[in-house]
Amino acid sequence: VTAQKYNNDYAGKRLLVTAGPTIERIDAVRYMTNNSTGRMGYALAEAAASRGAIVTLVSGPVHIAPPKGVSVVNVESAEEMFEAVTSRMEEQDIIVKAAAVADYTPVSRLTGKLKKQEGSLDLSFKRTTDILKYLGEHKTHHYLAGFAAETEQVAAYAKGKLEKKNADVIIANNVGDTSIGFKSNNNAVELFFKDGSSHIIEKMPKIDVAHEILTAIKKDDHVR
Ligand code: CTP
Ligand code: CA
Q1: 103 a known binding residue?
Q2: Ligand 1 nearest atom to the CA of residue 78, by list position
Q3: Is 165 annotated as a binding residue?
């Protein structure tokens, strides 16, 4: 039904989408992660596949089943996600970075399980590689879509990320609003394009938001 509705408009397009959180290990049993459920990225993968795209889903650890007809690459850390994405970037037409990638990872992984001591614990973290920025810097032919999770000044920060990462579109969502975003079934986003235009997608189920995003990207990719 969906393929008919959208006239198979993604047929033959190669689309890679990242989804979910990353986890950054601290010791043998502990790690740092975030609130991402992966639902928005999975919805994008499902929607694209139903419209005929050849979809690769690079996923951090999540609790949802992969959509049918999508090849899934499971990763854990930001570094693993970087490898999984960059090793596959050449063959893609469109890359959508929906994952909530950790910005920091422990400077070193402790061997075994850390024993508690008196007093406070200091851990040191270093920056991870910004995958979207890397893709923007090495962009050849592909269309590059990033997300921006913001709690304030959504438009300003999203536009900043569009520039800084050389993306073609930034899909911004307000993660401060708990009726949408991370744990919710619904989402509402605003897309910011390179030509300065923007496009609002009102609050609706994530699968419908995914279809709207794909329609907007298709249109923009065409005129780019
Ligand atoms: N991103 C990425 N690699 C990272 C961090 C972020 O590819 N190491 C991508 C995300 O997948 C998303 C976009 O960059 O598509 C924006 O992520 P976000 O966390 O909103 O922005 P940051 O650039 O990390 O800045 P900050 O968290 O400070 O707002
Ligand atoms: Ca971040």
Answers
A1: yes
A2: 8
A3: yes
Which residue, judged by its Cα, is nearest atom 24 of ligand 1?
103
Atom 9 (ligand 1) nearest CA: 132
Residue-by-residue pLDDT tens, the chain, 224 positions: 565 689 899 999 999 999 999 999 999 999 999 999 999 999 999 999 999 999 999 999 999 999 999 999 999 999 999 999 999 999 999 999 999 999 999 999 899 999 999 999 999 999 999 999 999 999 999 999 999 999 999 999 999 999 999 999 999 998 887 777 666 789 999 999 999 999 999 999 999 999 999 999 999 987 66
Report how far residue 121's alpha carbon sits from residue 181's, in angstroms, rounded to the nearest whole number. 32
pTM exceeds 0.80 for this model:
yes
Question: Could you tell me the distance, in angstroms and rounded to a whole number, from the CA of residue 100 to the centre of ligand 2?
Answer: 7
Fold (topology level) of 2-102+125-223? Rossmann fold (3.40.50)
Segment (H or E) for 156: helix 154-164
